[in-house]
Write a structure and sequence with these properties.
Order of helices and strands: HHHHEHHEHH
Helix content: 55-70%
CATH superfamily: CDP-alcohol phosphotransferase transmembrane (TM) domain
Number of helices: 8
CATH class: Mainly Alpha
CATH topology: Four Helix Bundle (Hemerythrin (Met), subunit A)
Length: 266
């Protein structure tokens, strides 16, 4: 009887190893972008401690860019995962919940007493609830709209306000108005108002020359009066939900807060 040779382990070909390494790298890239988002939120708090409020607001805006990129890169490379969804949400709580609330408190609310710091805390907890609701309800009712003000947009309202007023000497009335705004923005995040998501906009479609002129004009406004432009744009977006509800009423599909999960949001 001829003895059998021991089974040799099949040697992996180099192209298979390269493919596996590429696959691991794909999952790493979105997580690095999410880490950049988290770092910007943490860095914004460090700048806030040093009273560099405008720079802290800009750091949060950079975090928003990172947040937009990580989900798109993950979907483009087919590297979405449950880990990425959870990590993205945790980073968003810090960058768009804790950091803006801390910035707003240090910038305008700390001299107003207990109701002011409670407004900052309410902003944080409403942002966390907004993310939790976003992740739990995964059925999509209408891709054109979000239910409730997205937490990056709420953070953008805060940052736009800080950039708009950082050179001003804040009076008691101005601080009180900012406190009221903080309460309103926090409640808008957990509301059922519907906000345009811009996901259905076909950016690759041919546009008339007028569209190009509008974009160029917007860029010129940003370059010359960026503090006014950012404040008006993001405040207008936050008010668009209640205004839409007053003009058109509640949509038949607007009852539940069903939305895409995790990295699907902008």
């Amino acid at each position: 009887m001829i003895p059998r040779r021991p089974h040799k382990r099949l040697r992996r070909r180099p192209w298979q190893e390269l493919r596996d390494r590429r696959r691991k790298g794909i999952f790493l890239l979105p997580s690095l972008l999410t880490t950049g988002n988290l770092f910007c939120g943490f860095f914004a708090m460090l700048l806030t401690v040093d009273a560099r409020y405008a720079e802290a607001a800009l750091a949060i805006f950079v975090a928003m860019i990172m947040d937009m990129l990580d989900g798109r890169v993950a979907r483009l490379m087919k590297a979405t995962s449950q880990f990425g969804v959870e990590y993205d949400s945790l980073a968003d709580v810090v960058s768009f919940g804790v950091a803006p609330a801390f910035l707003l408190y240090a910038f305008a609310l700390r001299d107003l007493g207990r109701p002011a710091w409670f407004a900052a805390f309410l902003f944080t907890i409403c942002g966390a609830l907004r993310l939790a609701r976003f992740n739990v309800f995964t059925g999509v009712i209408d891709k054109r709209f979000f239910v409730g003000l997205p937490i990056p947009a709420a953070a953008a309202v805060v940052c736009g306000t800080v950039i708009f007023l950082h050179d001003e000497e804040l009076t008691v009335w101005m601080r009180g108005a900012i406190a009221v705004m903080t309460y309103l923005v926090a409640l808008l995040m957990v509301s059922t108002f519907r906000y345009w998501s811009f996901k259905e906009v076909d950016w690759a479609r041919r546009r008339p020359v007028q569209s190009l002129l509008i974009v160029v004009l917007a860029v010129m406004i940003v370059a010359t009066k960026h503090e006014v432009f950012l404040f008006l744009v993001f405040t207008g977006y936050a008010l668009s939900g209640p205004i839409r509800w007053l003009l058109f009423g509640r949509s038949p599909a607007g009852g539940a807060a069903n939305e895409p999960s995790g990295r699907e949001h902008a």
